[in-house]
Amino acid sequence: MNTSTKFWTIIAAGIILVHMTAGVSLAGDLVTKSCQELITMAQSYQQDLKTVDTVLGSAIDAGSLERIRSYKLKKGAVTKKLRAVMSALQVRGCLTKD
User: Fold this and answer.
1) Residue 53, Cβ neighbours under 10 Å: how many?
2) Which residues contact 66 (CB under 8 A, 6 or more apart)?
3) Alpha-helical segments (H) within the chain
């Protein structure tokens, strides 16, 4: 694994760890947050998904089954959090149709 891949793997793991240890409120608690807070959270989770996809791709390229499984689990966790935030945005009426 080259230095760049190691760097991005460490960065992605750090980002995911911060989100996992901080935890996400239950969907009911998310509804009490302001629309701007929810939008910020959604943007953050979208960025996290991009990062996880990048490191997942490098794990696939490297053929590391352990890392592939790990990043697939992380991707699933971030996706679940993003869906909860998107649901709260919809319930709060923060989303508008164009």
Assistant:
1) 14
2) none
3) 3-22, 27-30, 35-62, 65-92
